[in-house]
Specification:
The complex is a heterodimer. By secondary structure, chain A is an alpha+beta fold. Chain A has 13 helices and 18 strands. Chain A folds into three domains: 156 residues, ATP-grasp fold, B domain (D-amino Acid Aminotransferase, Chain A, domain 1, 2-Layer Sandwich), CATH 3.30.470.20; 86 residues, ATP-grasp fold, A domain (Dna Ligase, domain 1), CATH 3.30.1490; 147 residues, Rossmann fold (3-Layer(aba) Sandwich). Helices cover 38% and strands 24% of the residues of chain A. Chain B is an alpha/beta fold. Helices cover 34% and strands 22% of the residues of chain B. In chain B, the strands form two sheets. Chain B has a seven-stranded mixed sheet with strand order 3-4-2-1-5-6-7, with helices on both faces. A seven-stranded mixed sheet of chain B has the order 9-8-11-10-12-13-14, with helices on both faces. In chain B, helix 6 packs parallel to helix 7. The chains are: A alpha+beta, B alpha/beta. Chains A and B meet through helix 9 and helix 13 of A and helix 1, helix 4 and helix 5 of B.
């Protein structure tokens, strides 16, 4: 789960991580008032108006603007950015509508540093990555000049060792006494934050050194480990439903895993691996999957029904492939869920069903007796070929 | 022969009174697995299904019933603790079925297990089966057949798919291991491949990986240097777009790393034959064994 920059910075502040003064704003009037307060508090007439969307690359997309002319200019920028369809490298061509702003004090920046904490799967440790090349596309830096990225791994027994933080500070050119103190304190705070908030990513790009020599987190990106949601009831208040795919959100509420894709063949599968495999085999035979849908191992009839209805309601779906290899999942439960879904919404596209595993006979019987026009498949390969043929232009529905 | 578990394996089930735990304990018992104990704190002294003795701690189950392998069905928040308890009790193998354990919990658990004799399979996996001897986990027992092919996989349902294909061709399995698809888990591909390589009764291996991370590439390098037996593989997720989590927390392509193409190239370079589709896993292995 992702959160906004302003939310990440509010959390940073609780861990003693220096962030610029700022206020979120949900309207132009709020933005104007926030700019007014910031300018009064800092005595400097420069504020930054920042679009709050979950995708990165906001600056290049025109979602971050500096107002040097005081409150009136800040208001004008807020009017421009709020409500705009912000297109960045991460949003896709449709962009993301800006519904929230963050109004922040302007800083005199000397230089920019990249700093991030994430999980290194291969080392099974939290990794701290930093580079003097802040503000840049860090993946590009990692690709072109890997020697410019400094990485350290944290042993969970010891935690972040002070020497590691010092070593990183020296590597980043922050060896002077006061900067060393500020940086090691900030990094310690970030590590504690990462652990306590169950993050999977914390990225500060850029971390800046101001002209006065202070170290400040100018940006903040925070992603939480979805598996830890159960011990973080506060995440409910941080979630911004506008930033999430409404269909994926609905699926989550039902307890199934769903990802929208660009194709036209809807898939209902049990198990993440088989669901990925089903998408692959559709692609292999020349079709395009419309979604990844894993009903999970222990889905109820109601969950299967809701999952199937999500596929049925999608306009782009021209055919549906149900691929079940029942381990824990019972085939009769799947069949009953499908029939219940079609009773409410009907079935106007070809449906190919492959059922295998537990209670398969009972499942087939339910489908046979439903009166639905279903083509059954003897195997995964057979089913994939049948559905791809059925949705081809000119094929009889 | 087989790897890790056989007819003499004595199993304790942690979380035996929960909904999933009890359902699958029954299925494992019906398969013939020696479930010698169950653990649910507070239920010590009672019996599961009027036969399997229950204990408050894994330590008692090990001491009194000689359990050497634990299978965990404890809910996600308590699952890491359950793994630690099983390791401390001296279980040589811990199989954690639980899905959805916070990844930072697993970072600590893996660190804790370093240098200890306990092996961990999972979490978020179907478990392990040696057909017609011992089933520990949630896989459907009836699709398996005793034989000489080892199956190892990050994905539960794709394991069933591979096993189903093998059995349909009349080919049995020595052992089938689901290692799970979480970013931080126990035994990896190489750990299991080493065992299959040394097991005289395993004559070939099907390995099922997926997008994300670098485990398949590392396994490919190991196979190239060490593997004496034919290996067929499948990499799931070729159709998955970058940056999207496909159910398994681990199955995500980030920063162009961990793509299906990258993994397939590494495996093919190691002499592994990669199945063109998930429907061809058994046929691909058969083509190698002729």
């Amino acid at each position: 789960m992702k959160i906004h920059e302003y939310q990440a910075k509010q959390i940073f502040a609780r861990y003693g991580i220096p962030v610029p003064k700022g206020e979120p704003a949900f309207s132009v009037a709020e933005a104007e008032a926030a700019a007014q307060r910031l300018i009064e508090a800092t005595g400097i007439p420069v504020v930054v108006v920042k679009a709050q969307i979950h995708a990165g690359g906001r600056g290049k997309g025109g979602g971050v603007k500096v107002a040097k002319g005081g409150v009136a200019e800040a208001r004008a920028l807020a009017e421009k950015i709020l409500g705009m369809q912000l297109i960045t490298v991460q949003t896709g061509p449709a962009g993301q509508k800006v519904r929230r702003l963050y109004i922040e004090q302007g800083l005199d920046i000397d230089r920019e540093i990249y700093l991030a904490l994430t999980l290194d799967r291969d080392r099974r440790r939290i990794a701290v990555m930093a580079s003097r090349e802040g503000g840049m596309d860090i993946e590009q830096v990692a690709h072109d000049t890997p020697e410019k990225i400094h990485t350290l791994h944290v042993d969970p027994v010891i935690g972040l060792a002070p020497y590691q933080a010092r070593k990183l500070a020296f590597a980043l050119g922050l060896g002077a006494k006061e900067q060393m103190r500020q940086f090691t304190k900030l990094l310690d705070g970030l590590y504690k934050c990462f652990l306590a908030e169950d993050c999977s990513l914390v990225e500060v790009n850029p971390l800046v050194v101001t002209k006065k020599g202070d170290i400040v987190a100018l940006d903040g990106k925070m992603t939480f480990d979805d598996n830890a949601e159960i011990r973080h009831p506060e995440w409910a208040n941080l979630r911004d439903a506008d930033e999430e795919d409404p269909v994926e959100l609905e699926a989550k509420q039902v307890g199934i895993s769903y990802v929208s894709l660009d194709g036209d063949i809807g898939c209902l599968v049990n198990g993440a691996g088989l669901a990925m495999g089903t998408m692959d085999i559709i692609l292999h035979y020349g079709g395009k999957p419309a979604n990844f849908l894993d009903v999970g191992g222990g889905a109820t009839q109601e969950q299967v029904k809701k999952a199937f209805q999500m596929i049925l309601r999608s306009d782009k779906v021209k055919g549906i492939f149900v691929n079940i290899f029942g381990g824990i999942m019972r085939c009769d439960v799947v069949a009953a869920g499908i029939v219940a879904a079609t009773k409410e919404l009907g079935l106007s596209v070809p449906l190919v069903v492959r059922l295998e595993g537990t209670n398969v006979e009972a499942g087939r019987k339910i489908l046979d007796e439903s009166g639905l026009k279903i083509e059954s498949a003897s195997s995964m390969g057979d089913g994939a070929q049948k559905i791809v043929a059925a949705v081809k232009p000119g094929a009889a529905a | 022969m087989s790897i890790l578990v056989n007819k003499d394996t004595r199993v304790v089930i942690q979380g035996i009174t929960g909904e999933y735990g009890s359902q699958h304990a029954r299925a494992c018992l019906a398969y013939g697995t020696k479930i010698v104990a169950g653990v649910t704190p507070g239920r010590g002294g009672q019996r599961f299904e009027d036969k399997v003795p229950m204990f408050d701690t894994v330590e008692e189950a090990v001491k009194k019933e000689g359990a050497d392998v634990s299978c965990i069905f404890v809910p996600p928040v308590g699952a890491a603790d359950a793994i630690v308890e099983a390791a401390d009790a001296g279980c040589r193998l811990v199989i954690c079925i639980t899905e959805g354990i916070p990844v930072l919990d697993m970072v600590k658990v893996r660190r804790y297990l370093e240098g200890k004799p306990t092996r961990l399979i999972g979490p978020n996996c179907p478990g392990i089966i040696t057909p017609e001897e011992c089933k520990i986990g949630i896989m459907p027992g009836h699709i398996h057949k005793k034989g000489h092919i080892g199956v190892l996989s990050k994905s539960g349902t794709l394991t069933y798919e591979a096993v189903g294909q093998l059995t349909a061709l009349g080919i049995g399995q020595s052992s089938c291991v689901g290692i799970g698809g979480d970013p931080v888990a126990g035994m990896d591909f190489i750990d299991v491949l080493e065992l299959f390589n040394e097991d005289p009764d395993t004559h070939g291996v099907i390995m099922i990986g997926e997008i994300g991370g670098g485990a398949e590439q590392k396994a490919a390098a190991w196979i190239k240097a060490n593997m004496k037996k034919p290996v067929a593989a499948l990499i799931a997720g070729r159709a998955a777009p970058p940056g999207k989590r496909m159910g398994h927390a681990g199955a995500i392509i980030s920063g162009g790393k961990g793509t299906a193409d990258e993994k397939i190239a590494a495996l093919e370079d190691a002499g592994v034959k990669v199945a063109p589709t998930p429907a061809d896993m058994a046929a691909t292995l058969v083509s190698l064994m002729k």
